[in-house]
Every structure is written in structure tokens, then in C-alpha cells.
Amino acid sequence: MYEGNHLARADAALREGRLLDAADTARRLIRGNTPEQAEAHRILGSALLRMGSPEDARPHLEQVHRMATHTLASCLMREGHVDRAWAIVEPTLPTTDPATLALAAEALVRLGRSDDAARMIDLAGRIDDARVAIARSQVAMAQGDPEHAARILVPLSELPMRPVGLRHVLFQLADALDALGNYGEAFETYMRANEVGKPFYDHAAIESQIDRIIGVWDADGIERASEAASGSAAPVFIVGMPRSGTTLAERLLASHPGVRGGGELVLVSQLLERLTGSFRPDAPPDLVDRVLSPEGRAAGGTFRDQIGSLADGVDHVTDKNPLNFFHLGLLAALLPEARFIHCIRDPRDTALSCYFRLFHEVLAWTYDLGWIASFHASYERLMEHWRATIPASRLLEVRYEDMVADPGGQTRRMCGFVGVTPPPRVTLDHSHAVTRTLRLDQLHAGVYTSSIGRWRRYERHVAPLLDGLGRRDMDAAYGQ
């Protein structure tokens, strides 16, 4: 009875989008070795996947392969294993099952076969289903036809549906309206999307976390914790605000044969969970002592071994999880060979890009322009601490605007910082692991300038954002 009640609570939390609650309850059921193991693994894997942790999700979903085949394929796709995901889905085609159609369409687009995806959906004739309609609109966007996407989504956006589905529809519709240049209508749609199922955001808690991180990871704390360090591969952590150019930085740097693009890894979160019992960014007062304990040293050793295995024979592997900016002190202590690249972008463009993106509840601050401005100020406060604490030889700052204007020059600069000879010709890394966080219509695009100064199209709508950022003069600083 106990397990059944908790399983029902976990399943309800997952359906309602309370992903942290779902994951915590499912994890307790798994640790308790209850008879409900398969369902608990399914819930935990699904929650982790929706929270943006596909590597963590995959082991759980593999245990229930038969009952979560589509979710496993989706997990593989998020990890960048599109070919493996397609191998699972393709034998089930042709089909009229909405979930399979949506997943197959995304796989085909990621494989560069947008026209095949359009034909598959059109032949199935299931555009009446919201999942299929959203998938067909994404295909249309990938084909460069936002007008078609909007025609599909406008009527769908007025139908009653669960908040999770409605948010997907509204964000996709807003993207289409933005591409059509209907900026007023697009902003209203983005705003409506962010108000649907808007979570609670506790900015005071973020400030307290940053206070603790700064208190623990001062120069003395890093030096003490470095006693637990040992030799390892030389990872490169690319950090910054979400939407600040970390993907572009990784694609440029990983064009070098001596650098492997790892995408957004979860190894740091796993390490933090081993040390603190939670993957939330924080630093308990005794964290350095935990790092130096036998258990902490073992966790650090596992972490270094995992990074070394990912390098797979090359000198450097990258991790572009932007929120690793919370953990630079811990990483600097444990990995003496690690280097950090901090991506900086015009805060107005960064903030608006966050607001225009469908994020999960863990990034609750992205649901409100005022919250984004507050979070950005906290991020800047912590980065100022790292600048004063971590030697410049280990921390390089790269502006998104400079990468767009001079990709070759900035690639050479990053290569020099990392310690590899710059390639004679700069290209973009198009591997699925690196590009998996791009929107489907951005997958096969090169370096583009349209995102610079994008905030100006919405200037009359973003007063709370500009007020929160202090309305300081940023034009000269960011080349606008």
C-alpha cells in the first residue's frame, strides 16, 4: 500500500509537470527496492529526460525498454544518438500512432530529411492530434515555411488541452510568428506561453545559494580542496547564461581534431549529488571537508575517470552545460588541468532568448522577464567572484558577438587558450551531440547574425527587463 500510494504521487507529479517531486519520489522507491521498480524507473527516467538530463535518464529507461520504447528513443535523440533512436523507431513505420509519428519526424529532421518527415506525417493523416500537429509545424519551420507552421498552430492554440501541451503549441506558434515578422503578436504569444503553468521562483534562495558558494569557494577553499586533485584529461567547461553562445563556442572549438565536443553533460551534477545528496547548485559549509573525505575522494576519482573515458583518445573534451558556472570553484580544485571558457552576450538578447525558449520548471526564472533580470544580476555577481578567484590563465571570456563577427579569429583565440594548434580552416562541428540543443530549424544553419540585436524588435514590450538590467548603456559594449 505504501509503495502504491507513493507511486501514484510520483506519476501524478510527472503528469502535472512537477518534475523534481516526481524524480525524488521515484528515486526513493527505487532505493527501497520496492515491487514497483519498473514503474519507478520509468517515472524517474521520464522526469530526468524532461529536466534536460538524458544521460542520467537513459539507464533507468533501458531497464523498462518494452514499456518505454518511445521514451528511450527520445532519450537517445537528446543525447545526440539520432541514428540509434531512428533504428528503434523506423521498424514501427508506417504508423498512425501520434507519439511514434512525432518522434520519427524529429529524427528525420535531425538527420537532414525534412521532406521525408513532411511526407510521412501528411500520408498518415493524423494532423488532428496535437502531438502530430506540433511535429508537422516543426517540420515546416525546418523547411523554412513559418506561414504553414502558423496555419497549423493557430486553431490548435485555442483548443482546451493540458498545460504542458498548450505551452508547446504556444512556443512553437510564437516562433513561427517571429519568423514571419509579426513581432507584436509573437510577443503576446510568448507571454501567454510563459504564463501557462507558471512555476514558483524563489530568488532569495538563489541569492543564498550564491552566498554559500562564494563563502566556500574562495581562494583558500579551492587550495584546500585541491589536495584531492589528481591528473586527468584536460576538460574544457564552456559556461555562461543559457542562450549566451555556449553551443556556438563548442561548435567552433570542437572543429579542431584534438577537441571532442561533449555537448551538455551531467557529470558535474552527478558529482554534486554524490557530495551533497542533491543536484541543486549549492555549497554546504562543510563541502571542502566532504571533498577531502574518503567518500569525496572516491567521488572525485569517478568523476575524473568519466571525463577521461569521454575524451576517447583526444586531448580535450568539452562540456557546454552553461549552468556549470555555479561550480567553477569545485571544478578548479578537482581538475588542475581544466580550462573554463565564459561566454558573454548582450544581456538584453540573452534574456529575451531565454524568455522565448521552452524550458522546464528547474529553470523557473526563465518564465518572467523580471525574474530573468534578477537571475542575471546574481549570475554576474558570481562570475565577478570567479574572475577574482580563478587565475586568468584558466578562465577565458569570449563574446558571442565577436564569435559571430569573426569565427575564425575567436576559434584561434580559444584554441590558443586551451593549448592546441589552431586549425588552418575553421568549420562548425555538426555532430549530433553538439547540435542537439539547437532548434530544429537551426540545425543546418551556419554562423548567423540575425540573433544580434534581436531585442530591438521587442523593445516596447520589455520595460520590466530593461528596468531590471538597470537600463545601462550596452550598445557600445556589445557592438550595436
Structure report:
By secondary structure, the chain is mostly helical. The protein folds into 3 domains: 1-79, Serine Threonine Protein Phosphatase 5, Tetratricopeptide repeat (Alpha Horseshoe), CATH 1.25.40; 92-197, Tetratricopeptide repeat domain (Serine Threonine Protein Phosphatase 5, Tetratricopeptide repeat, Alpha Horseshoe), CATH 1.25.40.10; 203-468, P-loop containing nucleotide triphosphate hydrolases (Rossmann fold), CATH 3.40.50.300. Helix content is 57%, strand content 5%. It has helices at residues 2-15, 19-31, 37-50, 54-62, 69-79, 82-89, 98-110, 114-124, 130-142, 146-157, 163-179, 183-195, 203-216, 219-225, 246-253, 267-276, 287-292, 294-311, 328-334, 347-355, 369-389, 400-405, 407-418, 432-435, 463-468, and strands at 236-240, 259-261, 316-319, 339-344, 395-399. Helix 10 runs antiparallel to helix 11. It is globular, with a radius of gyration of 22 Å.
Relevant terms:
480 residues; mainly alpha; Serine Threonine Protein Phosphatase 5, Tetratricopeptide repeat; Rossmann fold; 3 domains; five-stranded parallel β-sheet; 57% helix; globular
* CATH fold field value of the largest domain: Rossmann fold
* β-strand number: 5
Tell me the count of domains.
Answer: 3
Instruction: Using the alpha-carbon principal axes, give the shape.
Output: globular
Q: Tell me the distance between the termini.
A: 62 Å
What's the layout of helices and strands?
Elements: H1 2-15, H2 19-31, H3 37-50, H4 54-62, H5 69-79, H6 82-89, H7 98-110, H8 114-124, H9 130-142, H10 146-157, H11 163-179, H12 183-195, H13 203-216, H14 219-225, E1 236-240, H15 246-253, E2 259-261, H16 267-276, H17 287-292, H18 294-311, E3 316-319, H19 328-334, E4 339-344, H20 347-355, H21 369-389, E5 395-399, H22 400-405, H23 407-418, H24 432-435, H25 463-468
Parallel strand pairs: 1-3, 1-4, 2-3, 4-5
Helix pairs in contact: 1-2, 1-3, 2-3, 3-4, 4-5, 5-6, 5-7, 6-7, 7-8, 7-9, 8-9, 9-10, 9-11, 10-11, 11-12, 13-21, 14-19, 16-18, 20-21
